[in-house]
# Entry
Amino acid sequence: MCCNCLLLKNTVLIFLITKGESPACAATQCTDLWAPEEQEQRYCWGCRKWYHLECLEPSSPLDQSTYFLRVAEDPQFQDVPKSILRVAFQPTARGGPKHFVTGNIRIVNMARSLLNHDYRKEIQSSYWMAAHLAEEERADVTDHDWNVWLGAQFGIQDTENRAREKLVMEDQQLYSCPSCNIKFLM
# Structure
């Protein structure tokens, strides 16, 4: 490992520790620290802990697309735009070649806050959304507008470039949490 990579890795670990977040995997049998440039970790929203992929078991043969369809059919989410659901219920991950060091937790967290009807209404009546709709010469907010809004919050543009951050990472394996046994949310 070169000096710059080692410095970056140590800087990330120090940052996590000072923020009160453990750089270690939460699986009881694991004693390895997380190597952000090499290892992907998944976050469990139930117990609020990070796990190495190697320490998890796949939850079922259910794939990410099928899981999304099940979530979209749930009556509690009927009024939530599909684009918000797709972002909010994707696996939350960080590290490795696909998710970069910071991962997508801030994106997923923002989308999960948009599950709240009142918060969505607040954003719909915001100056940003009004200006966006005026540019588009429309009055009603569409599913696409929520993607544009979320992308604007994080400086993400729709792109096929694999080296760029995306709102949704497709075709990810789903796992069960070994601590709280929540399925599909990792």
Observations:
- Strands lie at 41-44, 49-52, 93-94.
